């Protein structure tokens, strides 16, 4: 790999003073925000207290020594992601913090139910907009917001996907506010990434901090690959006794290529690129040294635009010519389905509570963050009047790009962004700044509070299963609310207590 981020905060400086055992949390204090391990809203769970006490048995030098060992192992294993700049593509290690993020069984039960409810509603919404469009006729969502969405695919109209499932893998980004309430920040219904870090983080903790985990009941994460493969088998064409599943990757230059390799191994399926597949007589085959071999289910990590040059971008060299026709004829299954990007659009996100009520006749288990849609006159006026207090995001961007955090912006930055907002209001939504919860994190000065979020991964075939815990991302820069890896964030192992 092109190299690790050797400046990770988890490496001790030679000048660091040794912090006595009893003072491991001396620099932590009582956080101003809800703390995942030291909250004061009620008595601590006994197991959480036990983990806190065990952490106190380490001094900061010992933790840093183990963190350095973990980082070296990540480097040797090639567990990286790619950051693209104007001139370069740089492979980096995702900084890994040794202090786990902890969720009690009760907390997880709420998150799990909320994620299942949300995924169920998203799949019903996608089925409807690509069939009867009742939700549009009933005026629950503006028609042009869906039909004019860049991710709406007319080619999907009338296609009956297996089991009615469009989103087989979903990543729901969740935050906690100052009261400890779980709120959904956004949905990722296309090709959500990051699950490989969930599993590798657990492996790393078992290797470098086994004494912290010993005797503590923690829900396992290792079955994700098998669950995903089972879902792919469940959506395979009928009558196939032993479906061939493959993972379709854009190739080695993709930012998440490590994850593609990792998941193919975890699922026990071939990792293929578009050039490895061919369509003959509306059936998909994989090229092997023994000849063509039928393929029945494809877990694709390739964007819609590049999937089939006969249907989308004619110049695409990454996809498979004729693939969509084979899919429409029922000869192959594709996950996630084409056109799911409508459901994770940030403008559609604002309507998710209404979508849940419309299709499920239920109140949302997990609420949205209060969201204003700038394409609507009232939403635009409110956003412009309160820009210095809000987070404003472009609806088509991800990874923390293109947004502005009003309280952290300069007057010049606010004035510049105001011009962009007025020029293209339909491209933006705004939300209040949420005081994200914090978790103890190993930093240069000892253990300090850093903001975190959570991305649980749901796998849907005949039913929906949620990976216990998910990816906890941490904003390593003091005071920062941006947890994205591409913006300098790191990750933690997420422990769901059993």
UniProtKB/TrEMBL annotation:
Domain Circularly permuted ATP-grasp type residue range list: 100-475
Pfam family, one: CP_ATPgrasp_2
InterPro entries found in the cross-reference section: ATP-dep_Glu-Cys_Ligase-2, CP_ATPgrasp_2, UCP005522
PANTHER family from the UniProt entry: BLR5612 PROTEIN, SLL1039 PROTEIN
Record-given protein name: Circularly permuted type 2 ATP-grasp protein
Species: Lichenicola cladoniae
